[in-house]
Amino acid sequence: MRLLLALLALATARPLARAESDWCYAIQAKVSSDTCLGPDKWGGNCQKDRQSPINIVTTKAQLDPNLGRFSFSGYDKKKKWTVENNGHTVKMWLGDGVTVAGGGLASQYRAKELHLHWSKVLDAGSEHSLDGEHFAMEMHIVHMKDTGTSRDEKEDQNKIAVLAFLVEAGSKNEGFRPFVEALSDIPRPHMNTTLKESISLLDLLPNEEKLRCYFRYLGSLTTPSCDEIVVWTVFREPIQLHRDQIFAFSEKLYYDKEQKLGMTNNVRPLRSRGKRQVFKSQAPGRLLPLPLPTLLVPMLTCLMAGFL
């Protein structure tokens, strides 16, 4: 009898153990009736010292001449992508045929999915910050390295390449319209749908010329198990969405199947940069419209004319 009671107790304890391992964001932990672990209690590698996101101090970023242009392949491919509410965010699955190389990356990386982080507050929805400033949202395009798995620890640090785009309130973004409209079809976790119109990744991004300005550092996934295997690229040029487009994410999506808790503030708090160096590309500021010699010639001509 004692053995039977012990086995019953063990069996009833297992679901609770699974519930305790469930991770969530701080807003969920505050209201959840289940055992839900907020960011300060995340397990796995989440308490290590090379975590993401971080605050990027732009003036302290070190110029790296190897951080040149990216080579985007398949980013112009228009498709009716599948989007999913996974209970933590909304994901757009990218399938095969979308890759990125260049930009100082170690090899070619294959895009797997993109997702976003956001808030109801227009300056609190991004995970990364620039000089202490947060943005309305942040979009991550997640890529896996094409090469095979390596046991080399240094190579393990960049198995995944994430391109991070900050989002600010501005004019209406027609490229995002099919994506935003699809949110109404996936309010609850584990629901998915297909976009009603074809779009490309380039439709969602700033002009490619503006993607020359970015920051680079080694970090982690921003969700459990927070593996420290990510080479991060954070672009300086923000994406612009209309306020209504931004708020649609908080208004149309829910964390729970009962649709009681709106999906918002799905943002991991900033982590310490520690001793890590943040690098910046060769074009960290506004690009000159013309080569410098072309600008100097007429200027010098004017100066010489003043002495004659």
CATH homologous superfamily classification: Alpha carbonic anhydrase
Count the beta strands. 14
pLDDT below 50 for ≥5 consecutive residues: which ranges? 1-20, 284-308
What's the gyration radius in Å? 23 Å
CATH level 1 class label? Alpha Beta
Q: What is the second-level CATH architecture? A: Roll
* Strand content bin: 15-25%
Catalytic activity: hydrogencarbonate + H(+) = CO2 + H2O
Domain Alpha-carbonic anhydrase: 21-282
GO molecular function, one term: carbonate dehydratase activity
Signal peptide: 1-19
Structure description:
This protein has one domain: Carbonic Anhydrase II, CATH 3.10.200. The chain has 7 helices and 14 strands. The termini are far apart. The model is unreliable at 1-20 and 284-308 (pLDDT under 50). The chain is an alpha+beta fold. Strands 2, 3, 4, 5, 6, 7, 9, 10, 11, 12, 13 and 14 form a 12-stranded mixed beta sheet that branches. It is a lipid-anchor; GPI-anchor. It is an enzyme of class 4 (lyase). Reversible hydration of carbon dioxide. InterPro entries: CA4/CA15 (IPR041874), CA_dom (IPR001148), CA_dom_sf (IPR036398), Carbonic_anhydrase_a-class (IPR023561), Carbonic_anhydrase_a-class_CS (IPR018338). Pfam families: Carb_anhydrase (PF00194).
Give the gist of this structure:
The protein has helices at residues 2-20, 26-31, 153-156, 177-182, 201-204, 243-252, 292-307, and strands spanning 55-56, 62-63, 70-73, 82-85, 90-93, 99-102, 109-118, 129-130, 137-145, 160-169, 191-194, 214-219, 230-241, 279-280. The protein has 308 residues and is an alpha+beta fold. Strands 2, 3, 4, 5, 6, 7, 9, 10, 11, 12, 13 and 14 form a 12-stranded mixed sheet that branches. Strands 1-8 form a two-stranded parallel sheet.
